[in-house]
Amino acid sequence: MADPQHALKLWLSQKLEVHGAITAAAEATGMSKDQLGRSKETEADDPKKRRRLQPHEIEALARHFNELPPGFEGMTNWLPDGRAASRQNGEPLSSGKTFSTFDPDQPDVIEDEGMTHGSETGLRGVPDGASPQLDVTAGMGAGGITVVSEGVRGKSGMTFAAEDISDYWRVPPVILASMGNVKPTDITFVPCQGDSMSPTLLEGDVVVVDTRHRWPSPDGLYALTDPFGGIIVKRLHVTDAGTDEDRVVMVVSDNAKHETRKVTINDLRIVGRVLRKFGIVG
Q1: Residue ranges covered by each domain of the chain
Q2: 20 to 30 A Cα–Cα from 27, which one of 13, 17, 40, 71?
Q3: DSSP state letter for 11
Q4: At what angle do helices 21-29 and 55-65 cross, to 10 degrees?
């Protein structure tokens, strides 16, 4: 299976080719030279020689090199002046122009700033007090394609580019309170399809995901990205096997017809914990 971070690692490898670059990057990002070396490795047969870049590390590297890596072109707020100062493939990076309305009956208004929705960056282009619905199905084995930008785990929810948001929800305060007094900026709504989480989740259900909660504790339902960039919902169970850095996690489908997988915690990209579902009554 192809490494979903392949393009990102090629970008990092190119940046670290310059003499002294790895030392400077280590000092600027807080990563060790060994971590940087393994993070850019794409072909090593030994998995211990490869390493997946974490979201906060990607942001730190983008700030250090003053260039947005592949797949993160919309995160212009990572750069000092809010704009992409470098070019990729000989062309300027995307300006990040996005639509400011989701109303199909109203003309689209294009803004220069990218639309975002997150506790850290605030609201742009989404009504106050609203939560986004991703334009991707929580495929539970199938998954659509989306580009998800990270927030700060435990502090702020994920931030999604405009092209990844299909609509928004206004949740009554009493419902937000019942979910632990979450803020609208803490949650996102993800439609589901497929049968691998049946009978817990059925096709047509919509799950509410707390995007601040991106560590699999306690055990329960979590939204994850799959190797193809889609979003899936699975039940996670942390085992005692492995160390803190490579703890083994059971990725469980509630439908017994689908296999349970074992992965290390570093191989998981958790979007957030599932808090509620809006389901079909029948």
Answers
A1: 1-84, 126-282
A2: 71
A3: H
A4: 120
Maximum pairwise Cα distance, the chain: 64
Token digits of residue 129: 């007090």
Q: Give tens-digit pLDDT for 198-209.
A: 999 988 889 999
C-alpha distances in angstroms, 225 versus 35, 229, 256? 23, 6, 21
First to last CA, the chain: 39
Predicted confidence at residue 141, as pLDDT, reads 42
Asked whether 207 and 133 are in contact (CB, 8 A), the reply is no
My answer on whether omega of the bond before 218 falls inside 30° of 0, hence cis, is yes
pLDDT (average), residues 225-233:
76
Q: Which CATH class is domain 126-282?
A: mainly beta
Mean pLDDT of the chain: 74
